[in-house]
Write a structure and sequence with these properties.
Elements lengths: L1 H4 L3 H34 L10 E7 L5 H14 L3 E5 L14 E5 L3 H9 L3 E6 L15 E6 L20 E4 L5 H11 L5 E4 L3 H12 L11 E4 L8 H15 L3 E4 L3 H6 L1 H10 L6 E3 L6 H6 L2 E4 L4 H8 L4 E4 L19 H4 L1 H4 E4 L7 H10 L1 H14 L6 H18 L2
Parallel strand pairs: 1-2, 1-4, 2-3, 4-5, 5-6, 6-7, 8-9, 8-11, 9-10, 11-12, 12-13
Helix pairs in contact: 3-6, 3-16
Amino acid sequence: MNCLLYIDPGTGSMLFSILISAVAALFFLAQRVILKIRFRISGGRAAVSSEKIPYLIFSDHKRYDSVFEPVMDEFEKRRVKAVFWTASADDPLLDKQYEYVETEFIGEGNKAYARLNLANAGILLSTTPGLNVYQWKRSKNVQWYVHMPHSVGDLTLYRMFGLDFYDAILMAGNFQKRKVRLLEKMRKEKPKELYEAGLTYFDSLDERVKKAGGGKKENGHFTVLLAPSWGVNSLFNRFGHKLIDALISTGYYLIIRPHPQSVTAEKDMLDELMMAYPESDHLEWNFDADNFEVLRRSDIMISDFSGVIYDFSLVFEKPVLYLESEFDTSKNDAAWIKDEIPWTVKSLPKVGIPIHEEDISNIKDLIDKASVSRELIRGRKQASDEDWTHKGKAAERVADYMIGKYEKLNMEK
């Protein structure tokens, strides 16, 4: 009897996540009904607009300005009217002087989602996952929801059901297609439209690199960038003192750039490290809001599972060393696809060399090896060619898709 009742940990975690998602969905459904009642009673401004917006773009945070700005610029260039909504009051895109693109701050948190839930639009483009799962619900007055990833990577690493209720996904590369289709089949869902658009963020970053004269700023010394993620499995938490001591002993110039989340979530740990390793002629701590210059100044990056690895290796074309560790996918869509390593993890050996604890004492040898490795140069080129498609053309392709889809939807009516 006990064997019949046994549920393996992976399945149990998946069922628990489904239960949590269902409860959350019911909660936000009730919240949405209450909001609608309040808006009708008060005549609030979040009522459904009578004027349909053909092309609506939504950003949940100002850090995605380089994702959306190329698309907005493309609509402006084509003299096609579009609207940009942001949930950040200080979003730099609000200051852009457009003639054909209208920009608006729609509030933060639930206020923004309340506005979105009653949106009246043809095509709604966003990089925000979780549509129709938590507080952001599909509006009956929006014809077509389009998801555009903000980085290269495995789409199954979103939280469970993160992309299920979008109508279309604009893929960075064709490598993202197979797992999306596999999940749809497993869940018996209607297939989404998958369109290979490229990656506007990488195109924007690549343009900055070219304007700056290339990916290296001459500063007279070889520079190592230590840029970990955050959490219990990060480099800082696993090997903080041991790794920093080893890097200092190399004699190379060291820049330490903590993850922004560490500043608040791991403040005590970070304060202790900063006190133990104060800035000097050969060491600096970096907290710049924009990481462009620190990436440009560095010759090699040491990280763990941070997505900035691919910015550094594919756009700046530089080598990385990365911490090899287990990747917990129990809360992600990847949990549905058993015995398969996520692309984001599987692709790391193409662009970098793994670090194990026993390697730390010989970290200089690994740095020197990675810096001159022809194999890594070939691997970076292969990863770039396969995974970052339509270089420099992503904004054009996104606009082509949105305009073409809107025309098709409204010709059929």
